[in-house]
Amino acid sequence: MADKSLIGKTGKPFKMQVDWSKVREFARAIKDSDPLYFDPELAKKELGGIPVPVTFLQSSAFWMESGSSPGFGGFNPQRILHGEQEFELLRPIFVGDTLTGVTKIADVYEKEGGRGGKMTFLVTEIEYTNQKGEKVAIARSTLIETGQAVKA
Amino acid sequence: MAKKLKFESVKPGDEIPKFEVTGLSRGDFVRYAGASGDFVPLHYDQTFVEMAGIPTVFAQGMFTAGLLSKALTDYVGIGNVRQFKVRFATRVWPNDTVTCMGKITNKLERDGEKQIEGDLIVLNQKGEPAIRGSFRAAVA
Q1: Which pTM does this prediction carry?
Q2: Cβ B31–A84 below 8 Å, yes or no?
Q3: Is the Cβ of B34 closer than 8 Å to some Cβ of chain A?
Q4: Rounded to whole angstroms, how far apart are CA atoms A54 and A124?
Q5: Are A61 and B70 within 8 A, CB to CB?
């Protein structure tokens, strides 16, 4: 059942330090050897700081604590798929920044699915603000709960 | 690099140079798990996936999305992506080859910037889409 009462629920704000070793590790993991991630002098000259990969905010998982998530109500974790992911990048994020993230449940809705029966969609948004109070990014995830256990 | 495309020199239909990764390995998924903090065991634990009735581990969707984002930033320049969206389709398995591609669909002005929009796709070696996506990026 799509529990609309979840919409608007927020988690506790969490801090995320943008650490160079983590940025390098992430860039390597996605097979991106661009020198801007690895050469601080070049990055400073070209961009004003060491940038982060487009999907780097995925690693906020390391900074979340219990309470950072608003909770998904009765959603069954055995039946949840990651359907979509979106990043709106509003301002540059650099190594050395301290971000504050707040997770919100943006939407809950239902659709008739194919193989998995009725599907419930849960859209979460994490809004990130930097140490200057500027809104830098929104990470939007669509999670899908299928009506039956998901088959390979 | 921090290059910027020129608004005048790009047009709808222009293609992002392909980024192909051959022979993905379990090690690639493990490395991404460590980098991202996504420790869902479906992506590295063979015993776990067999118990779940799945033949072998498969890639994190966001790992494949990361490869796609690299193809995009190689084209538009790091620091210029304003929006990046992916929808996951078929799974990516060890030994698969994936090809990340995209093309420009629109030119616009927004937030006082010249920008482009486009579609993105990742195909496996059978030509099946693993990811469909879209982007918006700043150009000079």
Answers
A1: 0.95
A2: no
A3: yes
A4: 18
A5: no
